[in-house]
Write a structure and sequence with these properties.
The protein is of the alpha/beta class. It has 13 helices and eleven strands. The chain folds into two domains: about 200 residues, 2-Layer Sandwich (Nucleotidyltransferase, domain 5), CATH 3.30.420.40; about 180 residues, ATPase, nucleotide binding domain (Nucleotidyltransferase, domain 5, 2-Layer Sandwich), CATH 3.30.420.40. The model has no long low-confidence stretch (mean pLDDT about 90).
Length: about 400
């Protein structure tokens, strides 16, 4: 089966094409035929975070070029002279009425190139920035109408889970129940899965997500956006610097000892604000704060995750989301599991795939397409606050 995937949940515009075969598990195989991604991070840097209307505009500008790039890599960008051009019915203008620039880009593309050999279109419909999500959803509807192929609506967070399990050695080794730690700019969640498509939310942040806290602390320290990698860079430098005294300062570990699996990082961010307010910090002081902050976040994430593994008897831990690229958090999880006798298998995607991408959307879409779980294009909506699974 060939699936084309579209991701526009935040500030990455991504399109991917895969060929896949088999069911969820050891017999599954896939190949990435074409993959294109354009980040908007530099554009949002001046705002210190993602500006939704700018993200929407850039997605509309980038989607057709990313589609063309992915199709070309897959060998599916065939001029209409080789066959029959795609018809462009009037409904396309209605579908893309809120994205006139996207419509203007898509029409010449549709007339110039043939329909590619794909069986379904997978698109992120939530969670994320709703204006950005709508651009991708409407683009998927337009392509579905042009090419007469069905749509699969994908939960962005499920995509992160699936991608972490898709390395060949991971497919051969993971066992349910799976506990997913999802850590990003908008989410910090623990999700239990006993089979593909079955999800139970066992813990979540009550305020700021871990990635959001990293970005806010970065701003307090005068670091550029995106702030998470900058805080981590300073913390790593501090661990390697003889002049920095680890834990000379102390920050709280919110909800570390509470009898639940929820998180809270707002108070940790506030503690940093109180520490820096009215002070002109030198680089050494910034390094010490970054080190203590990253350790505090890691302490909470690792402790809560291992407790949940024990409580739910999980055999596999999956880590996904942008913050999963953080080397210190990865290392702490590995070390903690080793200390516990490796009670569960740890699966983490490579850092370059930890952030948002279309590969994860396409993979998750394939498994739903395999079960013929297609969306009604008329009813399909973007949902910025979409949840994954039922609440425990």
């Amino acid at each position: 089966m060939r699936i084309l995937g579209i991701e526009t949940s935040c500030d990455e515009t991504a399109v991917c094409i895969i060929t896949a075969d088999g069911s969820f598990g050891k017999d599954f195989t896939f190949n990435i035929l074409g993959n294109a991604l354009r980040s908007q991070a530099a554009l949002h840097a001046e705002f210190g975070g993602v500006f939704p209307n700018l993200a929407k505009r850039e997605h509309a500008k980038n989607l057709v070029p990313m589609l063309q790039k992915a199709l070309e890599a897959a060998g599916e960008l065939r001029p209409s002279s080789e066959g029959t051009a795609v018809e462009t019915p009037l409904p396309l203008k209605k579908i893309l009425e809120r994205e006139p620039e996207l419509f203007a880009d898509l029409m010449p593309f549709a007339l110039r190139y043939q329909k590619p050999l794909i069986d379904a279109i997978a698109v992120t419909h939530g969670p994320g920035l709703e204006p950005a999500l709508w651009v991708g959803v409407n683009f998927a509807k337009a392509l579905s109408t042009m090419w007469s192929v069905p749509i699969v609506a994908v939960n962005h967070m499920e995509g992160h889970i699936v991608l972490s399990m898709m390395k060949e050695e991971h497919l051969a080794s993971f066992e349910f129940p799976v506990l997913a730690l999802l850590i990003s700019g908008g989410h910090t969640e623990l999700v239990l899965s006993k089979s593909f498509g079955d999800y139970e939310l066992v813990g979540q942040t009550r305020d700021d997500a871990a990635g959001e806290a990293f970005d806010k602390v970065a701003r307090l320290l005068g670091l550029p956006y995106p702030g998470g990698p900058e805080v981590s860079r300073l913390a790593t430098k501090a661990r390697e610097c003889d002049e920095v005294r680890p834990h000379r300062i102390s920050l709280p570990r919110p909800m570390l000892h509470e009898d639940n699996f929820d998180f809270s990082f707002s108070g940790l961010k506030t503690a940093v604000r109180r520490m820096v307010d009215g002070k002109k910090l030198d680089n050494k002081e910034k390094m010490e704060i970054a080190l203590e902050f990253e350790d505090a976040v890691a302490d909470v994430l690792v402790s809560k995750t291992l407790r949940a593994v024990d409580a739910y008897g999980a055999n596999t831990i999956v880590v996904g989301g942008g913050v999963s690229a953080n080397t210190h958090i990865r290392d702490r999880l590995k070390a903690a599991l080793a200390d516990e006798g490796n009670v569960a298998k740890l699966l983490i995607p490579p850092p370059e795939l930890a952030t948002d991408n279309a590969i994860m959307v396409t993979l998750a879409g394939y498994f739903h397409a395999l079960k013929k779980e297609f969306a009604d294009p008329v009813e399909l909506r973007a949902n910025g606050s979409l949840k994954l699974g039922r609440k425990a």
